[in-house]
Every structure is written in C-alpha cells, then in structure tokens.
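ok so heres the complex, two chains, lmk if somethin looks off
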Amino acid sequence: MGNAKLWGLKKSPWVFHVAAASCNNCDIEILDLITPRWDVERFGIVLVGSPRHADALLVTGVLNRKNLPRVLRVYEQTPKPCLVIGIGSCTCHTHMFESSYNVVGPYDKYLPVDVYIPGCPPKPEAMILGIVKALKRL
Amino acid sequence: MRRVVPIGPYHPLQEEPEFFKLIVEGEKVVDLEINIGYNHRGHEFISPTLTWDQVPFLVERICGICSDSHPYAYVLAVEDCAHITAPPRAQYIRTIVAELERIHSHYLWLGLAGHFIGYNTVWMWVWRYREPLLDLFELIMGNRNHYAINKIGGARRDILQEDHPKIEKYLDLLEEKNKMFTSAILDDPVILARLENVGILSNEEAIAYGVLGPTARGSGYAIDVRKDDPFDAYDKVDWNMIAFPEGDVLAKAKVRLIECFESIKIVRQCLKDMPDGPIESRVDEIPPGEGIGRHEAPRGEVFHYVRSDGSNKPIRHKVRAPSYMNIASNVVAVKGYSIADAALVLAAVDPCYCCTDRTMVYENGKRKYSGQDLLRLSHEKTEKIRRRYRK
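and the predicted structre for the whole thing:
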C-alpha cells in the first residue's frame, strides 16, 4: 500500500499551498506556475483546496506565533507520506525577520522540510526544479 | 436561524491566511467578523535596527504585490525629513516603475476576481498578458518582483535608452489587450450578472469607513494622492482620475481596468519627457527631525512616517497601509448578499493582509493592552523621545 501511494505521489503530486507569514510574492509566483506560461498542470501537479487531498505542502513565509499552531494542524491533516517543500528565503532561514518578536524561528525546528528553494521570490523555473528534486528523492 | 460559516485561516479562496466568520440566515449573510494577524512580522520593530539605506529592502517585503509602493513612500518620508529632492531623471524613473507596478497589480486582481467567480478563462487570459510585464521588470531591475528601484535621494538603477523600444512595444501590446479585456468583460452577460449590483458600498459608507484607492473611487469618492498631493513626476504629466459612483464590484473592476489605460498614458509621457542627468543625489546624513511620505499604491494611499535623531538609523518608523481601512468596509459591503457572492465581495477591495496585519498581546487568556493602554504607552514614548530632543 505504501508503495502504491509513493507511486501515485511521484506521478501526479497534488499540492496544497500554505502561506505562513509571507509577503505574498512566493504565493503569487506559485499561482503563476499554473497559468499559461509555466502551466505545471501538464505534469499532473494540481493545486487543491484541502490539505486532506494533498500529497505535498508548499510552504511560504516565516512562522509566527499566531500561525504556527495552524500550520502544524494543516501538516497533521495531510495524509502521510507527504512532501513539504519550502519556497522562498523565508523558509530556508528566517530571512530578514530574525530579530522580530513575533517570529518563532526556522521551519526545521517544527516541520520536516524535504526541499528548500531559496530566492526572494524564487523564479518559477527554480520552483519546478525544486519540486522535481523532491520527487526524485522518493 | 443564525448559523456561522467559518472561512480560514487556510482556505482555497485567498492566498493569505485570514479568518472570516460569516454569520448567515439561510443563504443570506447577515453579519461578518474579521480576524487578522496571522501574517504579522513586526516590520516597525525591525526597521529601527537597520540603517537608513537598508530599510527600503525591508519595507519592500511588507507586501510582494505593492513592493514598489512601500519603499517609495519610505524614501519620500526620509527625503522630507532630510530636505532633499531626487534629481529629475530619478523622479521620472520612479514614476514609471510605480505605474508599471499598478498595471501588474490590477491585472493580478482582475485575474483572481475571474477565479473567484469560477471563470478561470479570465484568470488564465489576464495572467498571460501580465507575464511579459514581469519580464520587463526583470529587464529593467533584475528581478521579477521586489524591484529595489527606490533609494534615498534617487533611483538605484537607470532605464537605459536601448530599453525604451522594448517598453514601448509592451505598452502597445498592453493597450490593445486592455481594450480587449475592457470590452470582453463589460459585454459578458455572465460576468455582469455576477458583478453588477453586488457588494454595494455607498458613498457615505465609503467616507465613514475611510476607504482608499479603487475601493473609494468605485464608490464615487474621488480621492487619489497622485492628484491631491502630487509628488515626483505626477504633476508634470497629463492624466485623469477615474471614479464611478455605483459602488458595486463592477464599478471597482471598471476603475481598475480604466486606470490601466491612464497608467499606460503616464508611462508613455514619462518615457518621452525623461530628462538626462544623474539618477541620484548625494545624501551625507539624515538630520534630526521627522518626515512623512505618501504614495498612491494600487490599493490606495500608503503612508510612512519616520523620525530621525541624527544617527544612521530611524528611531521610529510607522507604516499605514490602505488595506487596513478597505478590509473593514467588507462588513457593510457583504451584508444582505448570498454566501456565493461573499467570496467575490470579500476579494473586491483587493485585500492585502501582509500590509495590514497588526498584533495584540494576550496574557493568561486576557488582552494585556486595551486601546487606551496603547495610546498611553504611545504618548509616554513620544514624550520620552521629545525630552531627548530638547537637550
């Protein structure tokens, strides 16, 4: 059963987009991915409306005190095995918000992130490359 | 019977985390509660820890869509504080970038509005023609978003003469396509049925809630910083303020679509009239004092306030973003319409939660500071700063 799930995940990953405290730019670039120029739906990558339907989580932005429990809840709701793909410099470390009182720290303290895609915001090509790398790891 | 429909904080409708509580009677929305703050990162706190020249990069990351507006307002504030003006060429460059950004932001909203009413053709179509604009940004400024064009006392990058034809070519394409969108969207019976007479915000309510930008202009409240308090090149070019009196979602869409034509007009004139010369003036130090900067972002007026004590860092930096007022007006705009319309009405003001989010301190389940406490703390701090100045 586990193998079947992994096989399905590899062929057509359904992704759910979790914006923690992001500046919107990575989110907009993720939406850009499904519009005509990049069109990742041709690879079977579909943006879904619920974490319960998702195979992978695209996380953007830093974690703060208010959204940390919500992001963890979304992660718990996602069926395992799932991929967590961190998009943008904010997910790689805390970017320029490190000294803020409301930012709780980097992602890897709370979540197992599979792939980090640096850039502010990363270009859509970089995001596609990151997702491909994450799928190759399976 | 009243029931509650919770939306958020993570939901497929909007990209950012926010929480709406729709209180409904059957299909009809009777009340709305808005809970924001999931996106608070504390920019005003981080800003005094950075030097004057580093802060534009920070305020740029308040919001990725208006990533020119915040640094623009900030550099205007610092220039006001230091009594310097940018050289004419830099002023034109900044104006061009601000207007290109307005087109990109309005297209983004238009596409998402199509998505919200379930008309994905509009979304794909509009975003297809937004894509060359991002290429243009990459060409001029080196990044698709987060342009970093604003600098205290000037602009960071020049728009080269050899790039002018490329910009002109894109503007021609855009003008043609914008005409197509305007006629296609305003003629489509499906879109009209969803947008017309939905989410009406009357003129009085718009003034009472202090809404700004296209939301205000869609309610017949003609307010625009570019006309009311012109800065940089805005009083040297010819353009019109667009306002419609209806107040529904269609009026807001019309304002945004026709504003794109005006932006194209402004960019064309700026490219033609752009004088030669340096793109930045020398800034040695920021003297003690305070300054304000106002800029018309795609969503409304952005206001920045800075205070300097003569050191290399701002000691106070205050940001006021337009979405904070615009989102509050949803409470009246959404009342009386069906749940299906609520999705569109909540998005009609082009909400930007990352600009907006504020924070509150809770201790043992109780709010630590009330509004009065915060006011008192603010007065005390101002008094402290003032005493330091008087010495």
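quick notes: Chain A has one domain: 11-137. thats all i got rn
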